[in-house]
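Assemble and predict.
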Amino acid sequence: MGNDAHTPDAAASVDFEQVQSTGQFQELRKRHRSFVFPMAVAFLLWYFAYVLLADYAVGFMSTKVWGNINIGLILGLLQFVSTFAITGWYVHYSNKRLDPIASEIRHEIEGHEFDKNGNRVGGANK
Amino acid sequence: MITIPAAVDVAALKDTTLLNMGIFGLFVAVTMVIVLRASRNNKTAADYYAAGRSFTGSQNGTAIAGDYLSAASFLGITGAIAINGYDGFMYSIGFLVAWLVALLLVAELLRNTGKFTMADVLSFRLKQRPVRIAAAVSTLAVCFFYLLAQMAGAGSLISLLLGISDWGGQALVIIVVGALMIMYVLIGGMKGTTWVQIIKAMLLIAGAAVMTLWVLAIYGFNLSALLGGAVETANNPAVLNPGLQYGKSDTSKLDFMSLGLALVLGTAALPHVLMRFYTVPTAKEARKSVVWSIWLIGIFYLFTLVLGYGAAALVGADTIKSAPGGVNSAAPLLAFHLGGPLLLGFISAVAFATILAVVAGLTITAAASFAHDIYANVIAKGKADAATEVRVARRTVVVIGILAILGGIFANGQNVAFLVALAFAVAASANLPTIIYSLFWRKFTTQGAIWSMYGGLASAILLIVFSPVVSGAKTSMIPGANFALFPLSNPGIVSIPLAFFLGWLGTTLDKRREDPAKQAEMEVRSLTGIGAEKAVDH
């Protein structure tokens, strides 16, 4: 029964509901969601604004800015720039704000691990 | 002003056939040796499906780029820019921005909650059997569309590169490509397939970089001058503006929106891309993979911008369109123009390798889904041992390989880019809503998942069947008939919101509640990586 994907692992007998209700986990969840959701909405809006402009504001997009480089090309290249920037920002945020708290929770749980017979086992090493 | 050299002599291309075959043969020989070496310790299911979770983030990121930069991306986008100018460029932007969905919402959480396949994650806290079957069905459907696209691409590529224009000759080459692919996957499993992807991605990006620098050098490293050259050759300043392809009518504009939606939401739901996240040991490496692939893919698409306009300027849209292989021939023709037979041979071999590698990646995904989800968990009810499961996977590889060969022979000549866009639309409709809901929505239920997956899959496929892609237009699969009730050629704008809606509706109307303990387990595992942070033991 249940999911077989993780049966033989170190966390088989953890009370996940209890972990879920801890302040530490709630903080991790809040930090994760408060970054990824607004960011996902922002880049999707920016992408679709670009597509709409290219679709329905051809005159504007065709305005030449410098030589043969027009606004359409600049906005298109800015999509590349924003994609690279968001990637870098997310990695920085994860390293600083998500990874430390996630590994803290992980070590706490895996350090208090019991096997099926109720004997304490050596945490991460199974 | 820059003088434009004499047009490429298409007839001269045939003389390079032997060289093309030689370089391709070398690629096959080298990768086969590597696959054989890599496969020595393929023992467990985790070895076969997930390469023992032994790849680093940068290796896997390069392999993902190799998976993603298919022939449709390389040949298709370069050709689209060469012919349709700016509109071709917009394709590549959608393909790139889509990776942010994977990076922010899917990759790490998925790595932490699954084992081998997408169905592992989707069925984590829902009812195993129905959700697993639905996820496997949509995985197989997406892989099938994508496989068809690649095999059809092989056919049109052959006509250009090997000078084989008769149907039987092309069919023979498709059979050879398919047989080679079956060998790679049977022998190498995920590890071998990943190495083929890595080598191919590096060759492809290096080849494109050389050509890009070359084109830029011709125009004094002045992008504006290059664009001017494209305008001059095309004798049409509109190649620099949006709308050449999609601005024709209100329907075509809406079609572009639909395509954009499918591209941006489809990537993070492509099963063969998702499966790659399991080849790394930790979520952090999964994140690193996506970061690597975003950089590689982004830089590659910047290259295609230069290559596309370079082909428009130096080769010319008319020459490209009249060459065998049509739009897809822009990049090889540009290579021939720049570096003669040797560069053409190299680029052609890389294009072949691309098809081979992507087809191998798709095949192992489809086989893993069948063996792990359908056979081991549904037919054998979780009682099959790993050895039997891998044996079933290997047999499935042969079956899928043969189906891909047959499909490729019959789909030969179909438009490659559109088949790929369909795969994205089906993935975005059938898979993405359920992935997002099950990762982020506590109340999501089995009924919601089933409605969303089957509803998204069925609506996407039905809308395609009743679209101008299949009938009612000169470019349709069945040009003689007309049952095109749906005006758009991409179903995404209808089927994706519908699938999200069905997931919500099915959940709201479901009287059954899912186990809150399972929900808690999935949430904690997905964010912390408990139990998923170590390489699988040998």
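Chain A touches chain B through 61 residues (CB under 8 Å).
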